[in-house]
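$ fold --in a.seq
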Amino acid sequence: MKDKTTCPECKKNNTIKWCKRKTHNRGLIQRYKCKDCNKFFTLDDGFFRMRNSPNKITLCLDLFFRGVSTRKVQEHLQAFYPHNSSNVSVYNWIVKYSNIINSYTSQLKVNSGSEIQADEVEFRRRKHHNKKGIEHNWFIDSIDLETRYMVSSNYVKSRSNQELKNFFNSIKDKSNGLTTITTDGFLAYKKVVKKTFGYDLRLRKYKINHKVVTASAGQGFNHKIERMHNSIRQLTQNFRGFHGSLDSAKSIMKGYEVYYNFIRKHQSLNCCPYELATELKLTSNNKWTELIELAEKEGI
């Protein structure tokens, strides 16, 4: 039977289903044959050559981002899976698949409302195992007030002008209908926001309205993004200072962005933010697996 599956060798669609390969942990996997180049191959669904099943791997991701530490996840595996994985394997899965999914979701256009709030959370990260001390880092993020979608985020070493510029450029590229950026009174925001969004010479005004809310001056709080930060602080209590490199910490926080936007139902919305903010339709109960497969299908 001819199949429309593309051959990874010659990139043609003249393929047929050949047989199924039996694996120890992943069950039966379909093999294909290309009738043009005679290549036998297996489709990469995002879990190619992994020694554990997609359900087991995504279960670990889901437990971790719901606040369960990697060692507690390991204990869970010992109770319910005969072939256990170490907490190091769990950590590696979290880093790997957070990057894979975020590479796909970060390309989605956001149907944002008129106002986006931006702010940052300070973290104390333990330096690499061969270095001593604590390093102060920042998680800079933004939320669309209408859909509660986390439009952009980045875990950075410092709040430099270049890091802030990259952050606001991401908001600019992904959002539609944006007219107002709301931040706190951090002085660097004022210059970077205006420079990023530009000046309209014809109307003689900046293209974005930068609204500054300074709590210390009695102007109140940016309540919606602060509420999200409370959830982040509660979750990251189990992270114990982000062991390891800055890149690993970045990956974990990108995974949290995926969890917040696509996995966790927002209580006030009674749905996930992506359902209101994007055109993406996820139909599976296991959204982790579906997102990984979509990322692989897009060649990410």
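$ fold --in b.seq
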Amino acid sequence: MSSGGDRSAGRPAKPVTLYVVPTPIGNLEDITLRAIRVLREVPLILAEDTRHTRKLLNHYGIETPLLSYHQHNKVMRLDRVLSLLQQSDVALVSDSGMPSISDPGFELVVAARSAGIAVDVLPGPNAVITAVVSAALPGPGFLFGGFLPRRAGERRAYLQSVDSLPYTLVFYEAPHRLLATLRDIKLTLGDRTVVVCRELTKLHAETVRGSAAGLLQRFETQPPKGEITLLIQGVAAMSQSVDSEGALVELRRLAHTGLDRRAAVAQVM
């Protein structure tokens, strides 16, 4: 048996692939080693804003060519991109986070799969998950609604449609619409607990928690800037929160009576 020859002989050829690559939502260090490798190895990167993506590539010494693929040309570009994918791999990125999550990408993924092209979605940075963990609102899960409608009537109607859900409600919002949205939350959902996550992972990142009325007052005196992820406590979670506070009060009372901690917990539960 010969020890030489091409060891790759007989292996199936790797299929041409569309790589969906998440990029940092702020801090440039928040990118995976695999994402860097893919962006370096593919012949072409589709970018929402080529100038923005070029800054990331320059930071990591990546010289891969870029082609714009954004909200206004994504349909027009489809045929050209699918033609390129017949011959070689292509990576898709957005300005930040995961493509297709309130960013261009959905149509391309659908078209690629329909054409029999392999799609490989890399895990990585995402503002929604980061905000949910940071907000730490109680509930059985969360519901992500993308961007709320811009028009007040449509926004209020949408909020009313999710009024009775127990899940933490998560939305992206523009800073210049935050005050109007907080007013509509108070009007349609009541004065619930709201969390505003601003500029996540960036130098001036902050997470602000309070009632809808309280946050409205805060941001009226100090207008918000930067990218915002907005979280609203769910209905069932509100009562759970009250119950939890009551339980803590009862545990403290029982502790003062000298009751063993384990027995006190069992009694309250």
